[in-house]
């Protein structure tokens, strides 16, 4: 199972219901922004294209773009 959420400030498209989308999108986007800022601090000419994070239950794949950010969540329990 995987879910996809695309947002640019507001959630544009999601396979989750709205409250679940917000529950995942806001903190992951904040984490992605911090990661992008950290990469720019180290090398101003570099940028994050794809950020992948794994937990015991899920894998989060964050793909920032200038107009939107895509978040894919995959279930790792299976």
From TrEMBL:
<dbReference type="InterPro" id="IPR004942">
    <property type="entry name" value="Roadblock/LAMTOR2_dom"/>
</dbReference>
<protein>
    <submittedName>
        <fullName>Dynein light chain roadblock-type 2-like isoform X1</fullName>
    </submittedName>
</protein>
<comment type="similarity">
    <text>Belongs to the GAMAD family.</text>
</comment>
<dbReference type="Pfam" id="PF03259">
    <property type="entry name" value="Robl_LC7"/>
</dbReference>
<feature type="domain" description="Roadblock/LAMTOR2">
    <location>
        <begin position="12"/>
        <end position="74"/>
    </location>
</feature>
């Amino acid at each position: 199972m995987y879910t996809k959420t695309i947002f640019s400030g507001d959630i544009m498209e999601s396979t989750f219901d709205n409250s679940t989308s917000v529950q995942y999108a806001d903190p992951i986007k904040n984490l992605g922004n911090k990661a992008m800022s950290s990469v720019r601090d180290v090398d101003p000419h570099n940028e994050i294209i794809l950020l992948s994070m794994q937990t015991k239950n899920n894998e989060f794949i964050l793909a920032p773009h200038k107009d939107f950010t895509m978040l894919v969540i995959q279930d790792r329990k299976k």
